[in-house]
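Q: My labmate handed me this sequence with no annotations at all. I'd like to see what the chain might look like in three dimensions before we decide whether it's worth expressing. Could you predict it?
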Amino acid sequence: MVKQLGLHLQNINQPYEVSLPNGHKAKVSQQAQNLPYTIQNHHSKVNLHVVPLELNTIIFGNQWLADINSIINWKTKEFTINQNGHTQTITTDPKVERVSAKEFAMILEDTREDPQVFAVTLDEDDKHTQEFYDKHRQQVTDPELDNLLQEYDDIFKEKLPKAAPTKRTIVHHIPL
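A: Here is what I predict for the chain of 176 residues:
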């Protein structure tokens, strides 16, 4: 992403290590300084530290939150910034579409070169997941399929678990 955006990098005075999602550690030693950004009606500049990931993603982290010292209202999902005597409120889009875990995986696999921003929150229930599968479900009347599904009904569950299974001592992989 650094190359795509043509960012000029500078060394960080005190490099540090971060833990990556895959469990590996990476050294952060460079930053892009004073980059302008716009979020709704808020315009400012930020210093971004470069993390060696193959993602088209910019993460505004804890340092940014501390720098702008925003007020977050978790109930209304509003983010208020007071800077230079001006108050700006960033709101969530009420038309945000829910996506299933499968759709989210497809978004992450998207290889388009334009950077995108996503907000991901965990729902209290999985009603929308059921709605997603119901709208794509087709009624099939095949006696052979019915017999097969009935024979293995202990394998095909009506409702999937909410979380991945716990980590096991032996992990099996199927190469695809």
